[in-house]
Amino acid sequence: MATEKPISLAAFDELDIVMLGGLPACGKSRFATTHLKQGRLRVNRKEIRRMLFEMTHFGEPWSDEVFDHSDEYLVSHVERRIIEHLLENQKKLVIDNTSINRDARASHVKLARSLHKSIGMVFLDVSPRVCLERNASSDQPVPESLIANLAAAMELPDRSEGFREVLVLS
Ligand SMILES: Nc1ncnc2c1ncn2[C@@H]1O[C@H](COP(=O)(O)OP(=O)(O)OP(=O)(O)O)[C@@H](O)[C@H]1O
Ligand SMILES: [Mg+2]
């Protein structure tokens, strides 16, 4: 598997932000812990979503079944403020979201630019079939339809989006 091969992320070391991307269950969070933990803080949108839901629902556990689009504005706002706060305090970040296409990535690239911070992207180009297998054995599986829907919307990253470095691992 590509993500198990020795890889060099030296070109990303100096960057303020490493954005990870890839389908649900492709292995982003595991990759972040293995390869990007040193010297960086992690921001993850799903965990913000979960925290906001569980806090406002008196501890009722969040699941994908309770996903509500109308909450996403608040999730985006909180995520943005966390990223701004950490960058303003000179922290280096890994943003661990699916960031599946240009549209999904654009606001983070714009935010980085507005704060004069450098950003690169590592994209795990893992097939939907393998993601479905990993999802089935994950302790936090997502609905299988989400993997298919995002696979249809996927766009590999390109430096023209505003990234200083791009690495696609397949
Ligand atoms: N390279 C790999 N080989 C085999 N299994 C893997 C690999 N990477 C991750 N996994 C396993 O696949 C499952 C999903 O991994 P992980 O949670 O890192 O995915 P993710 O991309 O962060 O998913 P999500 O988008 O839902 O947060 C986990 O059980 C993890 O242990
Ligand atoms: Mg994850």
Structure description:
The protein is α/β, with parallel strands linked by helices and 170 residues long. The protein is built from six helices and five strands. Strands 2-3-1-4-5 form a five-stranded parallel β-sheet, sandwiched between helices. Helix 2 (45-56) packs across helix 3 and helix 5 (128-136) runs antiparallel to helix 6. The termini are close together. Bound molecules: adenosine-5'-triphosphate and magnesium ion.
Rg calculated over all Cα atoms: 16 Å
| Unreliable sequence segments | none
Helix count, DSSP H or I runs of 4 or more residues? 6
Q: Report how far the terminal alpha carbons are from each other.
A: 8 Å
Annotation, overall tally of beta strands: 5
Top CATH class: Alpha Beta
Q: Write down the overall geometry.
A: globular
Strand order within the widest beta sheet: 2-3-1-4-5
Largest sheet: 5 strands, parallel
SSE pattern, N- to C-terminal = EHEHHEHEHHE
Helix share, percent: 40-55%
CATH H-tier superfamily: P-loop containing nucleotide triphosphate hydrolases
| Small ligands present | adenosine-5'-triphosphate, magnesium ion
> Do you know the CATH topology?
Rossmann fold
Query: What amount of the residues lies in strands?
Result: 5-15%
Indicate the structural class.
Answer: alpha/beta
Average pLDDT metric? 95
- Tell me what the CATH architecture is: 3-Layer(aba) Sandwich
Q: Structurally, how many domains make up the residues?
A: 1
